[in-house]
């Protein structure tokens, strides 16, 4: 079913909207939540919470593209659950992937406060648009979908070493780009 029809179902307050969303995006939403949380039960619960959040936010929201909006909702809910689950302990591949990015995202911008849309997000979007497709795909798989390197290697056919080197070089390019954009505090 097309996204416009799904949104129409949400606007009509039809419960079929949830079913259509689940049919079209359910496996992707579960994958995102599972990669962030590393726990199937928590991931399923976050996906269900995401369906409720979509129900509550549409209308008045009219997200375009809907799929990206649904992914962002489930990712944000998964991150909240991850923080709750791991208050003092390290948990999941997602923590490891964020640690890799930590050095290039030391910023004067408060990322936590401006997570839904700020200069850093816009700069990251511009940066991703300028790099090679293979680097963009690896970057998004690792840092957006929170896939571990072995999983990416299996999906792409690249070696773990190749992926790690490409990701390292991409992070270095990102750091340089953010310095030029004056969004990185070079210490």
Count of the separate structural domains: 2
Low-confidence stretches: 107-117
What is the rounded Rg? 18 Å
CATH architecture descriptor name of the largest domain = Orthogonal Bundle
- Strand % is under 5%
Order of helices and strands: HHHHHHHHH
Distance between the termini: 50 Å
Q: Which word captures the global form?
A: globular
Structural class call reads mainly alpha
| Integer average pLDDT | 83
CATH topology (fold) name of the largest domain: Arc Repressor Mutant, subunit A
Helix count equals 9
Largest sheet: none
What does this structure look like?
With 187 residues, the protein is mainly alpha-helical. The chain has two domains: 3-85, Rna Polymerase Sigma Factor, Chain: A; 92-180, Arc Repressor Mutant, subunit A (Orthogonal Bundle), CATH 1.10.10. The chain has helices spanning 3-11, 16-37, 40-57, 66-85, 92-102, 119-130, 133-143, 149-156, 160-180. α2 (16-37) crosses α3 and α2 (16-37) crosses α4 (66-85). The longest helix has 22 residues, at 16-37. It is globular. Mean pLDDT is 83; it is low at 107-117.
């Amino acid at each position: 079913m097309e996204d416009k029809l799904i949104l129409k179902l949400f606007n009509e307050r039809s419960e079929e909207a949830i079913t259509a969303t689940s049919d079209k995006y359910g496996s992707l939403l579960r994958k995102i939540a599972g990669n962030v949380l590393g726990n199937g039960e928590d991931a399923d619960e976050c996906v269900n919470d995401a369906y409720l959040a979509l129900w509550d936010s549409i209308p008045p929201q009219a997200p375009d593209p809907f799929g990206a909006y649904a992914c962002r909702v489930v990712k944000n809910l998964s991150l909240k659950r991850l923080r709750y689950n791991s208050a003092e302990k390290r948990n999941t591949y997602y923590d490891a992937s964020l640690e890799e990015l930590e050095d290039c995202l030391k910023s004067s911008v408060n990322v936590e406060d401006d997570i839904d849309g700020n200069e850093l997000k816009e700069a990251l979007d511009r940066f991703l648009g300028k790099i090679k497709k293979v680097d963009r795909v690896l970057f998004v798989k690792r840092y957006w979908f929170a896939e571990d390197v072995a999983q990416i290697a299996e999906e792409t056919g690249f070696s773990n070493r190749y992926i790690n080197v490409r990701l390292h070089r991409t992070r270095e390019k990102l750091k340089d780009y953010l310095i030029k954009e004056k969004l990185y505090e070079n210490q």
